[in-house]
TrEMBL record:
Pfam families membership: CAT_RBD (PF03123), PRD (PF00874)
Domain PRD: 61-170, 171-281
Keyword Lipid biosynthesis part of the UniProt annotation: no
Keyword terms: Repeat
Name by which UniProt lists this protein: PRD domain-containing protein
SMART domains with a match to the protein in the record: CAT_RBD
Keyword set includes Coiled coil: no
InterPro entries: BglG_antiterminators, CAT_RNA-bd_dom, CAT_RNA-bd_dom_sf, PRD, PRD_sf
Upper lineage: Bacteria, Bacillati, Actinomycetota, Actinomycetes, Micrococcales
């Protein structure tokens, strides 16, 4: 690959084999580099491929503004933790994590501690991402001083979850976390059951709701104009449908989006699965 533009000693813009502009990071990769020169592959730590029409110049400028030692540590840690390979189509994840780590380091040096209010919820609702975040934190701490506290895994988890959304707005992930907790509480109270976050049915419910939030944000809700499957669910699980309609009201109040009939129906199916140990519903 050849250099197109140099942002600083550690960030350059190049072009890949498909002719697409990409962002290359690595210590010294831009030092004395000139447009048209071949990039030393040994200096490349990460290749970022801007997706969704994102402007590579703007992203590269953001990369260049981040503390380069922190950025380098984060991109190496993401790879070592198995979260990202050498090539990434999610540059905003590295930016968000590096920005968070830089802020956390500054607080640590000042002796300031933050107690994340969603720590318990994050660990249970996002088990896979939380395990990844703990591993990521271990890897980050190999490259920063002072090392970050274990509680930072909570914030890193939210950044990993947020990477699945188009907007990159972490506030949406915070809102989603609170809504999922509220939905589970309603189900537990309505049916008088302990909705265990570790159960397979609860895990499936949480996964379904997370994807539902993605569809809501992307304005791509399930909508088969009251599909055959949706009608079948409504006929088979009327009580669960009533619960799902209550949950849909909560979602609308919190997010401002009304769920389609199909979304409500599939929500009802998961509610029914979570409460199968109760007596069968009578239509």
């Amino acid at each position: 690959m050849k250099v197109l533009r140099v942002l600083n000693n550690n960030v350059v813009i190049s072009r890949d084999g498909q002719g697409q502009e990409v962002i290359l990071t690595g210590r010294g990769i831009g030092f004395r580099a000139r447009p048209g020169q071949e990039v030393d592959p040994e200096l490349i730590v990460r290749v970022f491929v801007p997706s969704d029409g994102r402007d590579p110049d703007h992203l590269a400028e953001v990369f260049a503004m981040i503390d380069q030692d922190v950025l380098r540590g984060v991109v190496i840690a993401l790879r070592a933790a198995g979260i990202e390979g050498r090539e990434s189509t999610r540059p905003t994840l590295a930016i968000a994590v590096a920005d968070h780590v830089a802020g956390a380091l500054e607080r640590a040096r000042k002796g300031q501690e933050i107690e994340y209010p969603l720590r318990a919820e994050v660990g249970t609702l996002y088990g896979t991402e939380y395990a990844q975040a703990e591993r990521l934190l271990e890897e980050i701490n190999l490259h920063v001083d002072p090392p970050l506290a274990a509680g930072e895994a909570t914030a890193l988890t939210l950044h990993l979850v947020n990477a699945g959304f188009a907007s990159g707005d972490l506030s949406f992930t915070y809102t989603m976390t609170g809504v999922i907790q509220q939905l589970l509480a309603v189900i537990g109270e309505r049916y008088g059951v302990d909705v265990s976050r570790s159960s397979m049915t609860a895990a499936r419910f949480i996964t379904h709701v997370r994807y539902m939030f993605v569809r809501i944000q992307q304005h791509r809700q399930l909508d088969g104009q009251e599909s055959t499957i949706g009608r079948s669910i409504r006929e088979s699980y009327p009580e669960a449908v009533r619960t799902a309609e209550q949950l849909a009201t909560i979602v609308q109040l919190r997010l401002g989006d009304r769920l389609t009939p199909d979304e409500v129906a599939y929500l009802a199916l998961h509610v029914a699965r979570m409460t199968m140990d109760r007596a069968p519903e009578v239509p």
